[in-house]
Amino acid sequence: MTPRDAILGKIRGGLSGADDAARRAAVEARLSTVPKGVIPARGQLDDVSRVDLFCAMVEKVTCSVARVRSHDHVPQAVSDYLRARNLPHAIRVGEDRRLKTLPWDDIKTLEVRRGASDGRDEAGLSHAMAGVAETGTLVLSSGPDNPTTINFLPEHHLVVVDARDIAGDLETVMAKVRNAFGKGKMPRTLNLITGPSRSGDIEQKIILGAHGPRAVHVIVVG
Amino acid sequence: MQITSPDFKQNARHALDDVQLQKALGNVRAGFIDKRQKAVDALPEFEALRDNARDIKNHALENLDLYLEAYEQKVTASGGQVHWAETAADARSIVLDICRTRGARTVTKGKSMITEEIELNDFLDAAGIVPVETDLGEYIIQLRGEHPSHIIAPAVHVNQDQVEADFRRVHTHLAPDRDLTAPETLLDEARQVLRAKYFEADIGITGANFLVAETGSSIIVTNEGNGDLTQILPRIHIVIASIEKIVPTLDDAAQILRVLARSATGQDMSVYTTLSTGPRRPDDPDGPDEYHVILLDNGRSAMLGTEFQDMLRCIRCGACMNHCPVYHSIGGHAYGWVYPGPMGAVLTPALIGVDKGGHLPNASTFCGRCESVCPMKIPLPKMMRHWREKEFERGLNPATQRYGLKAWAFFARRPWLYRLATSIAIPVLGTAGKAKGRFSWLPFAGGWTKHRELPAPETRTFRQQWSQREALKQGGAA
C-alpha cells in the first residue's frame, strides 16, 4: 500500500459511518459554488469612501500614501518619494504595461531598471492587481509584469494601485483572481501585503524592516 | 529533540526559579492580551467569523480525504509534486531524498512548527546539509541550540541582552566593538547575515498555514518576509504541512485569516499572506523551478472520529498560551516537547502518547480562558479532562494522586461526611488565614505555596453561607 492510500484509508476509517455519496456531493458543491461567509461591514462603502478607508488603513499599518489623478503622474510621484528620502534616483520595475508606457523620460536623471530584482536595488515599483479597503492590503501577482523579487528585496517598495481596483473585502479580490486566471487556477505567487516588513521577536517590540522592505509607499491612481 | 514532557513537574520547578525566563515571560503577559482585545473590539463581526471559521474547519475535517484528493490534483495540475508521509521519519527521508538527488548543501527555512515536530534540523545537520532558520526568533534560538518556547514567538523566553551576547559569539566576522545596544541594530545585523543566506541556499523549506483544495495553493502568513525570500530565491521550494491544514476554498481561507492574525498578534492582517501554487511559470523571471508539498499525518488521522477531533481545527495562533496563567508562569520549554500551552497540553498526548504527555493536561486549573479566546472555539479544557480520565483509567498517575482522588471520591459520595469534614476544616483555615487573607506557607502544601499563595477560605463553607442567604431571603419575603 502506498503512503497515500494508507493515510487516506486511516482518514476514512476515522470518519467511518459517514455517507460517502453525500460527502462527495457536499465537497463538489462547496468547491463549485464557493459560499461567501461573513463579510464585515467595515469595507462595504461607496466608491469614494472605500478608497478613503483604504488610504487610512494602509497608513495605519505604517505605509505612506500618495494620491495622483492618473497613471501619467506616477513617475513624478516616484521621483518625489526618492528625493524626499535622499535615495538614489533609480527604480526597479517589471514589464507591466500600465507602468512601462508612462512618461519616465520626463523625469530627468531617474534611472529605470527593468526586470526582476537581484537584491541590489534600493527601491522597487510594482503595480498591484487590487487593494483591500477593509485591512489596507495590497494584492500583487507574480510574473514578468511584476516580479515577486521586487516585493521583497528592495528596502523601499513603491506600489501603484488603481482606485477602481480597490475592493471592500478580500473575498471580492478572490473572485477577481478567479476571473483573471480561471477558476481553480492561480499565478505562481499571490502576495497579500499589509504594511512594511516587521519583527517582534526581540522582547515583543515591533521593529520595521526585518527581511523585506523597511518602507512601503502606496500610490493610489484615480 | 529529547522529549522531557514526562519530567514536566521538574521542568516547571526549574522554570519558576529561572530569573531570565521570568523576566522574559513578563513580555507575554503585557503584550499579546491587550493587542488581541483591541483588534477584536474593532471588528463587530468577530464572533460570527469565529463561528464560521469553526464550521469551515469542521466541514473540511469531515471530508478530509476528499479535500486532500482534490488538493493533490490541483497541485499536480499546476506542476507541483505531492508527497505523502505517514510518520516524521517518512517526511524526513522525503526531504533528504530531494536534497541528495539535487545535490543541495544549504537549506533556508521559514518558520515552521511542523519541521520542529519532525526534528528536521538535527536530521539535516547529521546528513551534512546545513539548515538555516531565517525567522528572527528561530534564528536566535538556532544560534542558542534551543527549541521554540512559543508557537508564534519562538524566542519569547530570550531577553535582548542574551541576543546581543549570542550575536557577538557567532557573528565573529563583524567588528567586536560594534554597538548593539538597540534592538534595531540587532535586527539589522540579522537581516544582513541572513540576506546572504537566501541567495546561497539550494532549497527553501516553509510550512503552511493553509492548503487550499480549490487551487492547490499553500499559504504562509508572516510578518518579517523571511518565508517569502526563503521560497522565491532558491531553486526548489519544499512545503511541509500536516494533513489538517486543508481548507476548501480561497474564500474559506479569507474567512479564517480574519480571526488568525487578530488572535495571534492583534493585527487585522499579518504583513505577508502569500499564496504559492506550483513552480515558476515559463515566462516568470523569478520563483523556484520545483515545488514540492509533503503532507504529513504523524498521528493526526487517528484523532479523527475521537473526542480529540476538534483539536485538528487548531490554526496555531498561540492565543491559548498567551492567555494561559500556567504558560505565563513557566513558559513553553517546561512542556517538554514541540507544542506548549493549552493546545500543546491537548495535542502532545495525542501525538507522543498519554504515557509521555500525561502531565500536561494536568497543568491547568480549567479557568477556561484558552477556550474563550480560541478563534476556532476548540473546547480545550474539556479535552484536557478527557486526557486526565484516560491517564487515570490507565493507572498512569502517581500513587499519592490516585489515593488522594480516591479519598476525595470517598467523601464526595457521602455528602454528610463531606459536610462534616469541611465544616471542621474551613473555619480552622479561615481563622488561621484571616489576618493576611492568604497563606504563604502551609504544612504538606509546600509545593503549592513555594511559588504562589493559597487564598484563605471564608470562615464558613459555601453551603453554610448559602443556607444563611436563603434563610434571610425567606425572612425578607415573609
UniProtKB/TrEMBL annotation, chain A:
Pfam families documented for this protein: LUD_dom
Q: Which domain of life is it from?
A: Bacteria
Q: Which InterPro entries match?
A: FTHF_cligase-like_sf, LUD_dom, NagB/RpiA_transferase-like
Stretches assigned to the LUD domain: 81-221
Transmembrane regions: none
Which protein, by its recorded name, is this?
Answer: Lactate utilization protein
Origin organism is: Aquibium carbonis
UniProtKB/TrEMBL annotation, chain B:
Q: Which domain of life is it from?
A: Bacteria
Query: What's one Pfam family the UniProt record gives for this protein?
Result: LUD_dom
Extract the GO molecular function terms from the UniProt entry: 4 iron, 4 sulfur cluster binding; metal ion binding
Protein name in the entry: Iron-sulfur cluster-binding protein
Matches recorded under PANTHER family: LACTATE UTILIZATION PROTEIN B
The UniProt record lists the 4Fe-4S ferredoxin-type domain at 305-335
Instruction: List, alphabetically, the SUPFAM superfamilies matched.
Output: alpha-helical ferredoxin, NagB/RpiA/CoA transferase-like
Recite the UniProt keywords alphabetically.
4Fe-4S, Iron, Iron-sulfur, Metal-binding
Show the taxonomic lineage: Bacteria, Pseudomonadati, Pseudomonadota, Alphaproteobacteria, Hyphomicrobiales
| UniProt entry tagged with the keyword Glycoprotein | no
One Gene Ontology term from the biological process aspect of the record: lactate metabolic process
